[in-house]
Amino acid sequence: MDGRERLALAVGLVLALCVAAQAVTIEWVTVGDASNNPDDTGYGTVDHDYRIGKYEVTCGQYREFLNAKAAVGDPYGLYNSKMTTDARGGIQRTGSGTVGDPWVYSPKGGDASWDDRPVVWVSGWDAARLANWMHNGQGSGDTETGAYANIGNQATFARQPDALIFLPSENEWYKAAYYKAGGTDAGYWEYPTQSDHQPTVQAPPGTDLVNGSANCNMELWNTTQIGAYTAKPSTSAYGTFDQGGNVWEWHETAITTSYGLRGSSWGYVPSAMAAAYRNKYLAPTYEGYAVGIRLASPAFAGDPPVADAGGAYHLLTGQSVMLDGSASADPDGSIVSWQWEIDGAAGPVETLSIATYSWAQLHALFGISSNGVYDVRVEVTDDQGLTDWSQVTTLTIAPEPTTLTLLVLGGLGLLRRRRGASQPRELA
Length: 428
Ligand SMILES: [Ca+2]
Ligand SMILES: [Ca+2]
Ligand SMILES: [Ca+2]
Fold this sequence. Notes:
By secondary structure, this protein is of the alpha+beta class. Helix content is 18%, strand content 18%.
């Protein structure tokens, strides 16, 4: 293998690793009306504002978790082979799980639509580890500490006071699904589609404008795309989708007492979508084709970071560029990743504020291969999962100066400032 082939291989490897690394973002709805009265079932009162996922956690989101934490070995069993072999699983795994040939998780059969369907074959412990990983800023973040302590031990498992991403408690799940919202005594619906009667079981987008529609009762024998029931729209008062049907959802009470998944699923009866129904049959180790995850978060999750792309940048044809995002800041925490965009193309997620890209990488990662002036910006993510895009700066790539130019520059006393690629700004 000559140097060029080695370089091509290295760039290809970088690309393969980069494609896998996308930050997981959750779309939240805020549940206010703190200290609301409980329902006549005894559930539903919550003494604080909070946020809950608008949708169930998707295969696409869980894949990113697997790519980050189950690429070389999978000691906690985050992946289940049924995610590939079962008709409801939407994730496939290639590779050997070794450093030289890590596992890579992609949509099953190359069908990207799986990424918008809920993940299944996940235990309550998998769900808690996902929450910890997100709490810890994703990437190489730890799965065993953070939002939850003692994963795997039902007796001592508990949400930590400063948890940033977690599973809803049973009351938090219940309120988001059934409470009518507005004040502290607004009352409750029987079903999570703002209805006191069962939603119609049918394929999305549904036709029942009164009770809503849902994926339930083995009507379709599979999951449906998150948020697909839009006819009513089929949402709770706070705007969540699919709390009734599609997949059962883990909540903390299910883990601490083995007493209560919520919401029924594509494979179970419609009456189990009702507020009165608690699923008390599954231990937190259970993994199945109809059980998934919904996450929750504090209503106030901190201050967002402020991104600064540095620059402007100047580069001679063929040289490396050093992009400096170190002026970015987070007022109440720290920045955990930087992702550069050049000429509209997003690069890899970096964990250092300064990124150096070779000429070959500029081409391979960003499609830059000729002289010109390109827009550059950076998106930063802080340790709370909050993000910010910088203002746009520019990258100017100009040809190597001719001997005559150098002589002229030298005559102007500028030549001594030219010290190669590590000083990309001297032509400014
Ligand atoms: Ca598992
Ligand atoms: Ca559901
Ligand atoms: Ca912050």
